[in-house]
């Protein structure tokens, strides 16, 4: 297997976990922003604008990214085989979630009903938020994929070979 020879360092794992947590928090804040934005619409002649990503809570899926980042940091500090497998499964779920979110966002951006004149500004701003999130999905995908590929090498090691952050720091001095 190709990933047997790859090893991700402790510092890199902590950074990947922190990046996943930050991306997740950003997605949750964007979901809250969209919630406030779309709840403030006034029903006009053409109705209100409710895109598919808002209806599915696509940006709220950032909670999964936060959970995956927390698991990466926990596995970095206390590596066990069960924790590594659990983190790998969560990261694979994040990859699937990211692919689904990209698909839904592209569908939303390619299809646009003309909302009423009063809600046009809110709909346009919501579409801009979707465009911004479209740039963050590949970043989340690459972080989850990188950790998944590099952490599979830890599954083939014995428990005695796994070191914690404190032991690695002691060994460097």
Automatic annotation (TrEMBL):
Q: Which GO terms describe its biological process?
A: cell surface receptor signaling pathway
Its membrane topology is listed as:
Multi-pass membrane protein
- UniProt GO cellular component terms: plasma membrane
Transmembrane parts of this sequence: 14-38, 58-76, 82-111, 132-149
Q: What InterPro entries would the database entry show?
A: CD20-like (IPR007237), MS4A (IPR030417)
- Identify the main location: membrane
UniProt keyword Nucleotide-binding, yes or no:
no
Q: Which UniProt keywords apply?
A: Membrane, Transmembrane, Transmembrane helix
What Pfam families has UniProt attached to this entry?
CD20
Q: Does the keyword Nucleotide-binding apply?
A: no
Q: Where in the cell is it found?
A: Membrane
Q: What PANTHER family does the database record attribute to this sequence?
A: MEMBRANE-SPANNING 4-DOMAINS SUBFAMILY A MEMBER 13, MEMBRANE-SPANNING 4-DOMAINS SUBFAMILY A MS4A -RELATED
Task: Please state which protein family the record places this protein in.
Answer: Belongs to the MS4A family.
* Protein name listed in UniProt: Testis-expressed transmembrane protein 4
């Amino acid at each position: 297997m190709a990933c047997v020879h790859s090893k991700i360092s402790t510092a890199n794992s902590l950074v990947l976990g922190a990046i996943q947590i930050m991306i997740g928090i950003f997605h949750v804040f964007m979901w809250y922003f969209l919630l406030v934005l779309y709840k403030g619409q006034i029903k006009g002649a053409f109705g209100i604008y409710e895109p598919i990503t808002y209806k599915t809570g696509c940006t709220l899926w950032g909670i999964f990214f936060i959970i995956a980042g927390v698991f990466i940091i926990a596995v970095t500090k206390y590596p066990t085989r069960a924790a590594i497998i659990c983190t790998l499964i969560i990261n694979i779920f994040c990859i699937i979630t990211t692919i689904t979110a990209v698909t839904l966002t592209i569908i939303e951006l390619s299809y646009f009903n003309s909302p009423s004149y009063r809600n046009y500004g809110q709909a346009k701003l919501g579409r801009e938020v979707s465009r911004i999130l479209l740039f963050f999905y590949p970043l989340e995908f690459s972080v989850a994929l990188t950790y998944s590929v590099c952490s599979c090498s830890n599954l083939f090691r014995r428990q005695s070979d796994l070191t914690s952050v404190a032991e690695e720091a002691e060994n460097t001095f």
